[in-house]
């Protein structure tokens, strides 16, 4: 684990302190979790961009997935 120094807006820090008390954790743990979540969200956005680019480059053709239509479970009608 590495110790870092950062600058943070006082209002944001006050809010973080309130939440960490509610969650019974500390600033460091809360910020670590927030950073992990932000990185996960960033990765998801990047994957979504790749997915969209792939479909833009190779759009779905009519009937391409018809073979699987009967395999889908749609629940009660």
Short description:
The protein is built from two helices and no strands. With 77 residues, the protein is mostly helical.
Proportion in β-strands? under 5%
Rg to the nearest angstrom?
22 Å
Stretches with pLDDT under 50, minimum 5 residues: none
Q: Could you tell me the mean pLDDT?
A: 92
- State the distance separating the first and last CA atoms: 54 Å
Helix content: 55-70%
**Global structural class:** mainly alpha
The description of the largest β-sheet is:
none
Q: What series of H and E elements makes up the topology?
A: HH
Number of strands: 0
Tally of contiguous helical segments: 2
Shape: elongated
Helix-strand layout with pairing:
Elements: H1 10-23, H2 27-57
Describe the structure.
With 77 residues, the protein is mostly helical. It has a domain at 10-59. Helix content is 58%, strand content 0%. It is built from two helices and no strands. It has helices at residues 10-23, 27-57. It starts with 9 loop residues before the first helix and ends in a 20-residue tail after the last helix.
Name the features.
77 residues, mainly alpha, 2 helices, 0% strand
